[in-house]
Amino acid sequence: MTTWYETAFRPGSQVRGKWNGHVYTVERMLGAGANGLVVLVRKGRFKYALKAGFETVDHQSEINTLRKLSQTETSFKHFLVDVDDLVVDDKEIPFSVMRYIEGMNLSQFLQKNGRDWIFVIGGKLLKRLTELHQSGFVFGDLKIENMLVSGYGDVELVDFGGVTPKGRAIKQLTEVYDRGFWMAGERVAEESYDLFSFAIVMLKALDGKNRFAGFLQTLPQTRDMEQLYAMMRENPAAAQLAPFLRKALQGQIATSQEAYQLWKSLVHRKDVKRRLPSPPMPWLKICFAASLLIFGATLYIFW
Q1: Annotated catalytic residue: which of 141, 159, 178, 194?
Q2: Known catalytic residue at 141
Q3: Domain CATH code at residue 59
Q4: Residue list, annotated binding site for ATP
Q5: Are residues 89 and 121 in the same domain?
Q6: Around Cβ 108, how many Cβ atoms within 10 Å?
Q7: Suppose 197 and one of 42, 127, 142, 242 were both cysteines; which one would form an S-S bond, judging by CB atoms 3.0 to 4.6 Å apart?
C-alpha cells in the first residue's frame, strides 16, 4: 500500500508551499524516521534538504531552534532557508527547507581515508559543538548518523530534532550515546552531556567489533563504564585518545571550548598532521587533464 508521503515525495514530484509559493522538485529520499522524512530537492540550480514533519509540535520546535541558529554569526548562519506547509489530501503537512550538506558518515570516512583522520575530525566536531553551545543550545542526540564528513575532515551536524535549550531535559536521544544509559549522569541539556556523547562517537567510530550493538542487549545492572575503558585499552587508535575520552566520559570537562583546547594539545603531542595522507581531490585530476589537452593542442598547432 502506497502512503501519502511516498506519493507526495516521489522523485520528480513537485512540492509547492501553501503560503510562500516556492516550488521544489524532489530528487530522492535522504532519510526517514518516527518524526518525519528528509528528501533532496532542487529549486533552480540549487539543492536543498527538505524535511516534512509528522508531529507538528516537534517539527515546530525544531524550526524555532533553526531560526535562532540561522541568525547567529556562526557556521549555522542561513542554515534554514524556508518554512511552509504542503497540502496533501486536504491535510496541511509542515515542512522546512535547509542547506543541503554533502558528505559521508564518520565510519565510512575513516574506512576510506584511515583512522588517523579521527584527530582532525574530532577537533572540527568540537568546534561545531562550541558554536552551538555558545548560542545557548545542546545538540542532545549526537551520534554518528547525525553528522557528515567531507573534504579535509570537515564536519557538519544534521538533524536538529534533539537540539535543546541549555538547562532543560534532553528531548531526544539514542541510548548508547546517552550518559543516562551508562548511569553516568542526568539527562539534562548541559555541555558535558554532548561531550559524553562525543566520546562515545569517537569510540564507536574506531570500534571494529560492533560491540555497541551488544551493549543494547545488556541489563542496567550489568552495564558500567569499565566496558568503555576496556575498549580504549584494546583498541590502539582509541588508546591514543584515552586521556581525553576518560575525562569526557567522567564529566570532568565542563565546556566544549575547554574540550577543544584539550583536544588540540592532544593532536599537537601526537604530531598527527605529518601522518595524514591528503584526501582525494577531483580538481587536481581535472587540472591535469586540462593541461594535457592544452599541451596536445600546442603540439598540433606548432608541429
Answers
A1: 141
A2: yes
A3: 3.30.200.20
A4: 51
A5: no
A6: 14
A7: 142
